[in-house]
Specification:
The chain contains twelve helices and no strands. With 361 residues, the chain is mainly alpha-helical. About 6% of the residues have low confidence.
């Protein structure tokens, strides 16, 4: 998974056109920025994190029930709640700002592919504190649960037997479940106090909330979505060598497309703002003669992305093994959206990119 490298830039965040001295125009921009930040926090960030917390609570209860009585039904229950929580995760992954950024929360939730060797070593040793160290981020979170629920044995009966005969597996499942709940609830609770600082940060600086959140949104689209879900497995960054084992939810094998579509919906909803002040609205308000239809062009491209993903196999492992060129074509369509967002949109909005693009694209 790509990691974000912050660059401190002297180029300021400005939704202003040129360097106008019109104070009334400036006041309008600041007000619109505050309204957009309020929409982001109250209608996207906080409720989606709370929704994730609720789904994780359901998952936690199902894990406890499964460990108490491992059976096919209790295993299926855990799997169902895992998928619901994983789909909800796709709606918060882009919000790596404030409490989440400070605690490296995202790196503890969805680094894939998961490290099977680390998981098995920790289970054998019973040393869970090692999970506090960053090299073990890939041994926890949703991908680790993917392995523990679908990949630790060759069939469901063998998985149930392993949990029944070796309590270390159930203990580890509980451990990573507890960590996901605790880490998520910390972010949820911290937002109650962080919200006011987030909304009030309308300064014309590279570290203002609007600047950082816009960059985080694009970074998620470019790295978390485009590269991690498609580019790396299909071999875009490795000379054309495909890596089916690097798809999201590799061990489940049937929901990688579902998760990608969920992420695509989350991206489009955030961009459009559900009819409230948003990036699309700013593009409409400050459209340039060179790119008068940029906001609609972006939506058109996002629709093309979704349509292309829908045309793929529900199992990205099968897709890569049988028709990997179709997945490569989907990557190209998503990449066209990267150009619109990262180059064209940032140019119109006069935002400096705050991260290094180190993947060679």
């Amino acid at each position: 998974m790509f990691k974000k490298i912050v660059v401190f830039s002297l180029i300021s965040f400005a939704f202003l056109i040129g360097c106008s001295d019109d104070s009334s125009s400036s006041d309008t921009v600041w007000e619109q920025k505050s309204q957009m930040l309020t929409n982001w926090s109250d209608n996207f960030i906080i409720p989606n994190y709370q929704n994730l917390s609720d789904r994780l609570s359901d998952l936690e209860n199902s894990v406890a029930a499964f460990n108490t009585d491992p059976s096919l039904q209790s295993l299926e229950d855990v799997r169902d709640f895992w998928l619901q929580a994983y789909k909800t995760w796709q709606h918060v992954e882009m919000f790596n700002i404030g409490p989440a950024e400070q605690t490296f929360y995202h790196l503890k939730m969805n680094v894939f592919p998961t490290s099977v060797s680390n998981i098995e070593n920790i289970i054998s040793a019973g040393n869970y504190s090692i999970l506090d160290n960053s090299p073990y981020n890939s041994a926890q979170g949703f991908p680790a649960m993917d392995y523990l629920l679908f990949g630790i044995a060759e069939d469901d009966a063998s998985i149930i037997n392993l949990y029944s005969s070796n309590p270390n597996y159930g203990n580890y499942l509980t451990e990573i479940m507890d960590r996901m709940v605790i880490n998520t609830n910390y972010v949820v609770n911290e937002w109650s106090s962080y919200r006011s600082a987030f909304i009030s940060s309308v300064e014309n600086t590279a570290t203002s909330s609007a600047n950082k959140m816009t960059n985080d949104f694009i970074y998620h689209y470019e790295k978390g979505f485009r590269a991690n879900k498609f580019g790396i497995p299909v071999g875009i960054f490795s000379g054309g060598n495909i890596y089916p084992d690097k798809v999201e939810a590799y061990y489940n094998k049937n929901v990688s497309r579902t998760l990608a579509l969920e992420a695509m919906d989350a991206i489009k909803m955030f961009y459009n703002g559900n009819g409230n002040p948003s990036l699309k609205q700013f593009l409409d308000n400050f459209a340039t003669d060179e790119m008068p239809n940029l906001s609609s062009d972006i939506n058109t491209q996002l629709d093309l992305c979704k349509s292309s993903i829908q045309g793929l196999d529900s199992n990205f492992v099968n897709q890569l093994n049988n028709e990997y060129l179709e997945m490569a074509a989907t990557y190209d369509i998503i990449q066209a959206g990267t150009v619109l967002l990262k180059t064209d949109m940032l140019s119109v909005l006069q935002i400096a990119t705050d991260y290094v693009d180190a993947d060679g694209d």
